[in-house]
């Protein structure tokens, strides 16, 4: 059943138990179900989300994907790549990792992404170089970033311009470190929080 919904909210995950879940995936063959169920019950929440994404049909779009997880940067990157493959329109992620991580590049180049919210609980994340950032996010309406680390990235101070974010209406930056001055030249932006 999970693999058919356009809106997926995994902010409070309860991994399915064997009782009662079998009826909800009647379209999935029993062999596929057994493999799916075995992986879900033995893995954590992020693995469950990964399984749900992998069982979605190729052209089944995702309108909204929300999740909160403690995971590695490579696992976070894989989840976001999987969502982008399904043309996710809104991606809301709250993550804690063991180390600083780099902003997931697959989100930057997504043509379908309209709303992107990334909150790092600990320890924070870095943006890629401005040359990469300025070539993406052409269709983004809302961007919310928390725990952004901008030390030693002076070129990113001028990132928020109309050429980089031509459709951006809402921008929220919370808990950013390493920047004293940030230039924001977005005429269509209606809401800015920092």
Automatic annotation (TrEMBL):
InterPro entries: At1g61320/At1g61330-like (IPR053772). It comes from the Eukaryota. This is Putative ovule protein. It comes from Solanum chacoense (Chaco potato).
């Amino acid at each position: 059943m999970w693999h058919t919904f356009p809106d997926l909210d995994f902010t409070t995950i309860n991994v399915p138990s064997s009782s009662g879940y079998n009826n909800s995936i009647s379209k999935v063959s029993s062999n596929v179900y057994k493999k799916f169920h075995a992986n879900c019950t033995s893995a954590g929440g992020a693995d469950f989300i990964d399984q749900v994404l992998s069982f979605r049909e190729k052209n089944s779009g995702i309108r909204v994907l929300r999740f909160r997880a403690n995971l590695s940067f490579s696992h976070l990157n894989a989840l976001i790549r999987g969502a982008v493959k399904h043309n996710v329109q809104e991606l809301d992620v709250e993550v804690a990792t063991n180390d600083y991580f780099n902003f997931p590049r697959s989100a930057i180049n997504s043509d379908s992404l309209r709303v992107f919210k990334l909150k790092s609980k600990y320890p924070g994340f870095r943006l890629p170089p401005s040359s990469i950032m300025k070539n993406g996010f052409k269709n983004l309406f809302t961007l919310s970033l928390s725990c952004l680390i901008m030390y030693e990235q002076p070129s990113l101070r001028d990132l928020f311009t109309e050429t980089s974010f031509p459709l951006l209406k809402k921008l929220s930056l919370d808990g950013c470190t390493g920047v004293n001055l940030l230039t924001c030249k977005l005429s269509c932006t209606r809401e800015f929080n920092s």
